[in-house]
Amino acid sequence: MGDVIRLEKLSKTYGSRRGLAELDLTVAEGEVFGYLGPNGAGKSTTIRLLLDLIRPTGGRAWLFDRDPREHAVEVHRRVGYLAGDFVVDPRQMVGECLAFLAGLRGSVPKSRIEELAVRLDLDLSVRIKALSKGNRQKVGLVQAFMHQPDLLILDEPTSGLDPLVQQTFLDLVREAKAAGQTVFMSSHIMTEVEAVADRVGIIREGQLVALDTVARLRSQAVHRFEITFLGPVDQAAIAALPEVSDLSFDGATARFQLAASPDALIQVLAQHRVAALRASEPNLEELFFSYYQASPQAKEATRA
């Protein structure tokens, strides 16, 4: 399988303000890629550059090995896009709007639109201006998924959706992956990305500060331990472990954080009798904030 998305030194500045700084990134065919960062981090800028909605200050982007500017019609035909600020004519009925957009896409069966509307609990007979933000977002999701594109580019796709519809959206992403489609999904909601993404990129102030699978990012992160011993505890041996922090003792129970391999810890524990051991790994949200607590220069992006 080849790369559907390829970025090389992609940069964008807005006057004196930096939007994106020399971003290198590839997304493979059939991959679900989660692009994480808070508002203003550069997520939407990356997507708009990908689709040639804005022009880069430096570097280049390719979709399907095509320049999105030189081959706009060919590239856009293969993409389903949901903008973070999705807007359509508020005077139209939902069904009328989706039928019009389906016509622009070519051949989209009416049954496909109806199926997605039922799954997302979207009423096709109401006027768009009467919809809530969450229901307008459903319209955006239907128009992105309805033609079963090779690449889905989704900018904050669950904004305004209730939890049940969020789960339906995640099901749609899983189905798209199973069908061989590629998904590039930007979000600041870590749990939804963790549920479906093969890899995750974390962007901060226009720079990619982490890039890897969730599992590998976790393996590099700090883990918390709580160990209860039977008998005396060699506190000095635990304190001497590499990368131990926040160490405290409460009687026979030791609590601490470990940012290194647990191999040395296991060797220490082998010299003791252990009554209970609890180790907790960080979830994606905790990993996300750990990268945001450090400067961009302090974290190097790992390449999967």
From TrEMBL:
It comes from the Bacteria. Belongs to the ABC transporter superfamily. This is ABC-2 type transport system ATP-binding protein. It is found in: Cell membrane. The keyword Nucleotide-binding applies. PANTHER family: ABC TRANSPORTER ATP-BINDING PROTEIN, ABC TRANSPORTER ATP-BINDING PROTEIN NATA. InterPro entries: AAA+_ATPase (IPR003593), ABC_transporter-like_ATP-bd (IPR003439), ABC_transporter-like_CS (IPR017871), ABC_transporter_ATP-binding (IPR050763), P-loop_NTPase (IPR027417). Residues 5-230 form the ABC transporter domain. GO terms for molecular function: ATP binding. The keyword ATP-binding applies. Its main location: membrane. Keywords: Antibiotic resistance, ATP-binding, Nucleotide-binding, Transport. Signal peptide: none annotated. Pfam families: ABC_tran. It is a peripheral membrane protein. It comes from Micromonospora luteifusca.
